[in-house]
C-alpha cells in the first residue's frame, strides 16, 4: 500500500509538472519581456543580462532582439558584448543598412565592424537566393488573395454575402497556403535566414500573412480558422514567431482568439489614452498570458516607450487606429499615459 501511494504521488507530480511546464517560446518571451521593461527604465546592464539568459537557456534568437541587445551593449560601452551580438545579428541576414544607423556610428571606422557589415550583406544575399523559389511560391498565394480582397472592397462592397464562387476561391487559396506551409515549413526567420522581425528584412517579396488575417476576419470555415489560430499559437510556443507581431491578428481575428484588451489604448490629439476601467481585467491578462502577450501593465509601459520616447531601440508595439466617438465620455473615462513624440507614427 505504501509503495502504491508513493507511485501515485510520483505520477501526480509528473502530471502536474507537465501541465505547468513552460514551453521554450514562453521561457524566451518571459526573459525578453523583462529585458524590454529594463530598457524602458534605462537599465541597459540589466537588459543585457536578461537577453543573455534568454539566448543561453532557450537557444532562440530573433533579429529584433539581437539588435536591441547590441544597442544595449553599445550604450553600456561594452565592446566585447557589442561585437558578440553584432556578429550574431549579421548571421540573421539583416544586410548592411541596419549597421549604418546613427546608433552604431562610433564603430564606423573599425575594421572588425566593417567585416561584420560585409558578412551581414553576404548572408542576406545567400539566404535570399536559397529561398527564392519558396518565397516566390508564397507570393503567389498572396497575389491571389489580393485579387479576391479587391473584389470584396469594390464590386461587392455593398453585398452582405459574397458570391459562392468568390467565397470558394477565397477559402481554397487559404487552404492551399496552409497546406503548403505544413509541407514546406512556416516562413520563420530561422527557415528563411532573413531578418523578418526588422523593417529591412524583405525587400523583393511580401510574406503572405494577410491571407491568414483576411480569413480570420471574414472566412466562414470555423475549422480552418481554428487551424490557423493553432498554427500561430504553436509557432509562438516553439519560439518561431514573435508574439508582438501577432497582436493585430489577435485583435482583428473576428473572435477566433480571446479578448486581449488592446482596445483600452487609443491615440487622440497626439496623446496616448488608457481606459480607466477595463472590464474583466483578470480574464484579459490570463488571455494575454495564453498568447504570450505580457500583462496590460507591461504592454502600456512598452507602448509609451515606443511612441513617446526618442530612442534607438526597435519596439514593435502599436495601437490599432480607431476613431473616438462621444468625446465627452472618452475624456471622462480615460487617462493620459503619454504624449506622442511624432504624431505621424499613429
TrEMBL record:
Species: Flavobacterium rhizophilum
Domain of life of the organism encoding this protein: Bacteria
Protein name: Tetratricopeptide repeat protein
Record's signal peptide: 1-21
Record key words, sorted: Signal
Amino acid at each position: 500500500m505504501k509503495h502504491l501511494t508513493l507511485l501515485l504521488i510520483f505520477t501526480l507530480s509528473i502530471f502536474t509538472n507537465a501541465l505547468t511546464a513552460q514551453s521554450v517560446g514562453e521561457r524566451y518571451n518571459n526573459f525578453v519581456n523583462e529585458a524590454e521593461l529594463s530598457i524602458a527604465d534605462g537599465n541597459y546592464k540589466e537588459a543585457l543580462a536578461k537577453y543573455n539568459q534568454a539566448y543561453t537557456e532557450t537557444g532562440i534568437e530573433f533579429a529584433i532582439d539581437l539588435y536591441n541587445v547590441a544597442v544595449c551593449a553599445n550604450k553600456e560601452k561594452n565592446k566585447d558584448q557589442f561585437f558578440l551580438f553584432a556578429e550574431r545579428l549579421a548571421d540573421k541576414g539583416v544586410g548592411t543598412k541596419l549597421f549604418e544607423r546613427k546608433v552604431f556610428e562610433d564603430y564606423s571606422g573599425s575594421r572588425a565592424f566593417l567585416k561584420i557589415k560585409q558578412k551581414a550583406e553576404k548572408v542576406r544575399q545567400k539566404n535570399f537566393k536559397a529561398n527564392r523559389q519558396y518565397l516566390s511560391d508564397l507570393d503567389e498565394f498572396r497575389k491571389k488573395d489580393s485579387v479576391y480582397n479587391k473584389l470584396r472592397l469594390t464590386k461587392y462592397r455593398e453585398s452582405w454575402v459574397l458570391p459562392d464562387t468568390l467565397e470558394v476561391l477565397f477559402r481554397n487559396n487559404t487552404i492551399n497556403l496552409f497546406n503548403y506551409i505544413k509541407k514546406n515549413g512556416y516562413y520563420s526567420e530561422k527557415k528563411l535566414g532573413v531578418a523578418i522581425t526588422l523593417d529591412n528584412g524583405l525587400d523583393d517579396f511580401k510574406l503572405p500573412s494577410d491571407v491568414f488575417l483576411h480569413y480570420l476576419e471574414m472566412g466562414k470555415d470555423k475549422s480552418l480558422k481554428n487551424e490557423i489560430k493553432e498554427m500561430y499559437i504553436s509557432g509562438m510556443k516553439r519560439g518561431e514567431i514573435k508574439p508582438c507581431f501577432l497582436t493585430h491578428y489577435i485583435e482583428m481575428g473576428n473572435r477566433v482568439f480571446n479578448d486581449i484588451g488592446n482596445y483600452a489604448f487609443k491615440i487622440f490629439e497626439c496623446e496616448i489614452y488608457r481606459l480607466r476601467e477595463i472590464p474583466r481585467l483578470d480574464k484579459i491578462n490570463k488571455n494575454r498570458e495564453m498568447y504570450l502577450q505580457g500583462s496590460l501593465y507591461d504592454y502600456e509601459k512598452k507602448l509609451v516607450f515606443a511612441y513617446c520616447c526618442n530612442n534607438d531601440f526597435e519596439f514593435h508595439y502599436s495601437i490599432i487606429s480607431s476613431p473616438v466617438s462621444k468625446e465627452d465620455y472618452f475624456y471622462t473615462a480615460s487617462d493620459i499615459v503619454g504624449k506622442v513624440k511624432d504624431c505621424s507614427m499613429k
